[in-house]
Design goal:
Length: 154
């Protein structure tokens, strides 16, 4: 599956992450690894300009999908076909809202959640509750990356 294009132009003014936010992201990723259970996996998504969004780090995806280092096309292929466009548009809208709220709210207090059906190794789909939170920022305060935590709903 081709990852949806960046026609919305929402990522164009993003710079490189600050050292402090990069260190905070590494700490969040470490905490995710330590607190993960068998029904949870994590993805850190980078949204830098001039490149497509990319998965920087993945944890526990092998338990759910048999993929240790998924790419964005791999991830979009896991989303049930009928939900891909909805999921993409929701993510773009959430990003715009987060960018508008960043000046007014502390970075660590912003998050959003969405439910998404993902294909398992056996071909069946399970619903996951995804919680996304910004985790890396450039010097202008733009979000450079976000950490997604997915919990399989049983």
């Amino acid at each position: 599956m081709k990852v949806p294009d960046r026609a919305t132009g929402i990522y164009e003014d993003i710079g490189v992450p600050t050292f402090v936010s990069h260190q905070a992201t590494l700490e969040l990723q470490r905490n995710c690894r330590l607190s993960s259970g068998p029904h949870t996996f994590h993805l850190t998504i980078g949204v830098r300009p001039n490149t497509s969004p990319s998965i920087r780090r993945a944890h526990n995806t092998d338990l759910h999908f048999g993929i240790t280092r998924p790419s964005m096309p791999d991830y979009y292929d896991l989303i049930k076909h009928e939900w891909r466009s909805i999921y993409h548009h929701f993510g773009a809208a959430a990003y715009k809202i987060i960018q508008q709220q960043l000046p007014a709210l502390p970075n660590h207090s912003i998050s959003y959640t969405v439910k998404v059906p993902l294909r398992q190794m056996d071909g069946t789909y399970h619903w996951y509750n995804q919680v996304s939170r910004p985790c890396a920022f450039d010097k202008a305060g733009n979000m450079v990356a976000h950490l997604n935590t997915y919990h399989r709903m049983v």
